């Protein structure tokens, strides 16, 4: 549920930001079309001998304005919500793989008990989150740098510390048996769970890299890295 909540937050935030970006793009496109019509109207109205010179100046101004606009778009930064969306996306990628691997490879075969009652809902929740995230990865062009794995680790540490606090206050049972601190295998379990963060994040980084490589070959005129 902790990871599923993060995935929902990501999709809500990404949908909102994408809708806002589409709105801005439509306004810019309408503004560009209006200016082009104005240039054409000026060319038609020019009937004196200096018309050719005026048309040349107009086209030069238009090209200069387009160049400044492109430069402005390149220099535009994502802003707070844009960076928040990227951080949540990269945290989701590692967290979804981690939870799904733990669920299907550890809990289902070995650790199902009275607290962890398996059901169709739990199976779907630990499968569809990865499916929807992979679909989103195929459609977005967000970066996936290695240093963002730090946010994934911070997210996991926050969850573990929260479980320690809840258990110390007597408010919750251990959600996963391998989080228990009063067992002789606890140090080994925690070391394994810490190390598994690297392949989980690295595997999703390979998925993003493979997408960039394959899509740039399959759709060379439409794909944007």
TrEMBL record:
**One GO CC annotation:** membrane
Question: PANTHER family from the entry?
Answer: OS02G0130600 PROTEIN-RELATED, PROTEIN ROLLING PROTEIN
Sorted alphabetically, which keywords does the UniProt record give? Membrane, Transmembrane, Transmembrane helix
Show the taxonomic lineage: Eukaryota, Viridiplantae, Streptophyta, Embryophyta, Tracheophyta
Q: What is this protein's record name? A: Uncharacterized protein
Q: Give me the segments passing through the membrane.
A: 6-26, 87-112, 118-139, 151-176, 188-207
In the UniProt record, does the keyword Transmembrane occur?
Answer: yes
Is rRNA processing there in the keyword field? no
